[in-house]
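Appendix B. One record, verbatim.
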Amino acid sequence: MKALMKLIDGNIALKDVPEPTPGPGEVKVRVKATGICGSDLYGYSVVKSPVVIGHETAGEVVEVGRRVRKVRVGDRVTTETTAYICGKCRFCHSGDYNLCLYRRGLGPKINGAFAEYFVIREESIHHLPSHIDFFSGALTEPLACATHAVIE
């Protein structure tokens, strides 16, 4: 499949990459819309290159891994950016998993959503209501960041 990647030299290029397969507790999403974040282009100071970029996204579930319980094939979804956490540290236990020292985010550390498909942990999936289109759904992540910043 085609994917937009941040390369080791810092450049961005369209490359052929293998289609991902969901592991246990993971969901495979067919991308319908992905926004361009400044961090996709410039902001990553610690990027696991080469990596598929993109984290402001929405799409349709096409496959689920073992142990996935709340998400079904055909669901319309958007995602948080957290692709992996340790699940053991005090931050994970308190619900502040975004502060987990082992957290890996969609885009900078785990292949992201500027591709035909991506996989992410079930806990990061949020269902989109039928009246929300995929383009609006892709704006959920930056809206959540702005809302969180205002509340804090």
